[in-house]
Design goal:
Helix content is 58%, strand content 0%. The protein is mainly α. The longest helix is centred in the last third of the chain and has 33 residues. 34% of the residues are buried.
Length: 324
């Protein structure tokens, strides 16, 4: 964060959000440069530019900046999800591009954070010093300003909540019907929990955005991959025990948000399976794509279905494990 950011102001924005404030002004230019590339920084380009081995090296030699990049991207996603500008198409487009870039960065670096055995917990603590970092809460402030701040909601909980909300935003993960940027409870596809059984017109841009958010949720909920079998079965593990991202997503998220998510995944999968030939050859009709592009578009549709089912699978497994 910038040196002139006050802890009380930051905590207030963290809790309540602010549509009228330029959040970029709070962050240090060093971290804003990571998202300045905009939509040019695709996930494919990110994977080519830096490998997991290089990320591990960066984390080992400079863990502070690595952790701050985690904080920055997670906080940006949380703040942007609460202040999408429905009144300005240009500003909204800029916000959505920032969201996508932060999503890609966090999806890429989160596994490096999860695999480290002795890491600092920044996602499931309620301590403002760990959530915002020592650059905001210096040791001299621990007994003054920091002591007046009430325990904050964990960043991990707010991040999960932001992702589930972002899966139902008009003009981003749902086709726009005149209210771009608005959060809705419309399902991705008709079927379960709807009275209309006609198919929605789908677009590759909307499906691509859905896939980005779903992949981030999968990355967040993947901590079991970096634990021993006994740790997973016993509910213990890093940073206090258990897969807290997955537990919050499947057990503590707002009920109707999860109903909409699960119903959307089920309906999407049913459409894909019942129209398999069309979905694997020409999933996006009436868009005039070249034949050379159709294979890539079919792969996009398949990736969305597969990733969505993977998320549903681990959510169901977690719910079953919690009842045992």
């Amino acid at each position: 964060f910038n040196p002139d950011v006050e802890l009380e102001t930051l905590s207030s924005i963290y809790l309540n959000g602010s549509k009228n404030m330029d959040h970029d002004g709070m962050f240090a230019p060093f971290y804003l440069d990571f998202i300045s590339a905009g939509n040019n920084l695709t996930m494919e380009m990110f994977n080519k530019l830096i490998t997991h081995q290089e990320l591990r090296f960066i984390n080992n030699v400079n863990p502070t900046n690595f952790t701050n990049l985690l904080r920055f991207t997670a906080l940006k996603i949380h703040l942007l999800s609460n202040c999408l500008d429905t009144g300005s198409t240009t500003h909204l487009e800029q916000q959505l591009v920032q969201l996508l870039v932060c999503t890609r960065i966090l999806t890429k670096i989160m596994p490096i954070y999860l695999e480290k055995k002795h890491r600092t917990d920044i996602f499931w603590t309620r301590d403002c010093g760990k959530i915002f970092g020592e650059l905001v809460v210096s040791p001299d402030e621990d007994s003054t300003a920091a002591s007046t701040i009430q325990p904050l909601p964990p960043l991990g909980a707010l991040l999960i909540k932001a992702c589930t909300r972002l899966l139902f935003v008009e003009g981003f993960t749902l086709p726009s019907s005149g209210s771009a940027g608005s959060m809705t409870k419309l399902l991705w596809e008709n079927g379960v929990s709807t009275q209309d059984f006609s198919y929605h017109a789908q677009t590759p841009k909307v499906d691509s955005n859905r896939l980005e958010i779903i992949n981030l949720l999968l990355a967040l909920c993947s901590s079991d991959l970096y634990q021993t079998g006994d740790s997973v079965l016993n509910g213990s593990g890093h940073a206090g025990g258990g897969n807290k991202f997955l537990y919050y997503l499947s057990m503590l998220s707002p009920e109707y948000d999860i109903i909409c998510l699960v119903a959307s995944i089920v309906n999407l999968t049913c459409r894909y399976c019942s129209n398999y030939h069309e979905e694997t050859t020409n999933p996006y009709q009436n868009f005039g794509f070249k034949n050379s592009q159709q294979q890539q578009l079919s792969s996009l549709r398949l990736s969305l279905v597969q990733s969505s089912l993977q998320l549903l699978n681990i959510m169901c497994f977690n719910c079953h494990s919690c009842r045992l």
